[in-house]
Design brief:
The complex is a heterodimer of chains A (258) and B (118). With 258 residues, chain A is α+β, with helices and mostly antiparallel strands. Chain A is built from two helices and 13 strands, in the order αβββββββββββαββ. Chain A has one domain. Chain A has helices at 15-69, 214-224; strands spanning 74-89, 98-103, 109-115, 118-123, 128-133, 136-141, 147-151, 156-158, 163-172, 177-199, 204-209, 233-235, 244-257. Chain B has 118 residues and is α+β, with helices and mostly antiparallel strands. Classes of the chains: A alpha+beta (258), B alpha+beta (118). The interface between A and B is medium-sized, with 30 and 23 residues.
Chain lengths: 258, 118
């Protein structure tokens, strides 16, 4: 409580100068928020959209895993796609999205080039893409080289039996579908195919993709599967002293709707 | 003389409190997008029943005469990889007791079991 006992000298106080000072401070505040604060907020929003979509893609990957490895016939997930669109490119789309070949390293094919197709989120403003292809979630920036694998597919090598198991998952749909906003992704299991090959020589995997995710897959091949080679063909480290087996499981996953 | 009325200072204080709490709430909500896959992977995906099935079928066939015929052996391996997506291998030995060593691998879980009959 300020109680004035005596009047101060107020000769220098000017109402208009005070007004100008206050007005300047207010305008400067508004200007700062508009120039720096608002773009920062927008950036945060696109970043959040991207991260939410990364999580959504992992949810979808888990759906595909349930279908392929646990023989669940049908799955659906509701998700919100913001700041971009989710599109399915099926196995028949040209040029093929991602192609996997399994060869004996000298020209013979165990598996003909297998187009996997993908389920792809393209961000409008951030210039990022997230793709669910062949059971893996990969992401890249459009204006920078390189790509990263967020979740790995289930390919594995069993040392005691010298067996390589490769799961190839292809997306099928009636045509190219796209979705922005809230929607339900309905996925159903189609045909499955299972083949076993005895391997006498080497085993190579060749990866080819149209939006370039080769860095992500190279990291997976070289670090997780301990393969050698620098792409596009990678050699599997098999135990030459024992008979080796290659198991190829193909899954045909149908995207009913987005 | 004029008195300055500052009874409403609590409004400004409440404003501060609310804005700070919103700020911390935003941080907490922000963390929620990170959680997801790993917990589900490790707990839900342990293939307990698959391993039990395989272990059971191998022991059932082994105890009859200590070995499993080639055809049944191939069937067990093929069914396991085709239906369950798991590579299994086993060896059976027989002295006074029966022994089985089973290894199981489905890409996420690797499991081995050493069993002796009594």
């Amino acid at each position: 409580m300020a109680v004035r006992k005596f009047s101060l000298a107020e000769d220098g106080v000017s109402e208009s100068i005070g007004f100008i000072l206050i007005f300047t401070i207010v305008i400067a505040g508004i200007g700062l928020v508009t120039l720096y604060g608002y773009p920062m907020l927008l950036q945060q929003q696109t970043g959040a959209n991207e991260r939410i979509m990364e999580k959504n893609m992992i949810v979808l990957q888990n759906d595909v895993k349930s279908l392929a490895y646990k023989t669940v016939p049908y799955k659906e997930s509701s998700l919100k796609v913001e700041g971009g669109s989710l599109t399915v490119y099926n196995t028949l789309s040209t040029p093929p999205v991602a192609t996997f070949s399994v060869t004996d390293c000298v020209g013979g094919n165990y598996v003909d080039p297998f187009p996997s197709g993908d389920l792809r989120y393209s961000s409008l403003s951030a210039g990022a893409e997230i793709s669910l292809q062949n059971g893996a979630v990969v992401t890249r920036r459009l204006n920078e080289p390189g790509s990263v694998m967020l979740a790995e597919p289930r390919w594995f090598y069993d040392a005691p039996t010298n067996t390589v198991v490769l799961n190839l998952i292809g997306f099928n749909s009636t045509d190219i579908m796209s979705r922005a906003g809230i929607g339900t992704v309905q996925i159903a299991m189609g045909d499955t195919d299972y083949k076993t090959y005895p391997i006498t020589g080497d085993l190579c995997i060749k990866y080819d993709s149209n939006p370039d995710y080769s860095d992500a897959w190279e990291n997976y091949f070289r670090n997780s599967l301990k393969m050698t080679g620098t792409g596009p063909e990678y050699r599997f480290p098999l135990d030459a002293s024992k008979p080796a087996t290659l198991v190829i499981k193909k899954f045909d996953v149908t995207i009913k709707s987005l | 003389m004029a008195r300055l009325n500052d009874d409403a200072q609590w409004i400004i204080l409440m404003g501060f409190l609310v804005s700070f709490s919103l700020f911390f709430l935003a941080i907490v909500i922000n963390q929620s997008t990170v959680v997801g896959q790993t917990i589900a992977e490790s707990v839900v995906e342990f293939p307990k029943n698959d391993i039990r099935d395989i272990s059971h079928v191998i022991k059932e066939h082994a105890v009859s005469n200590g070995v499993i015929t080639d055809k049944v052996h191939r069937d067990i391996l093929n069914l396991s990889i085709q239906r369950k997506g798991a590579v299994i291998n086993y060896t059976l030995t027989h002295d006074t007791n029966y022994h089985s060593l089973i290894t199981y691998n489905n890409g996420v879980t690797t499991y081995s079991e050493n069993w002796t009959s009594d």
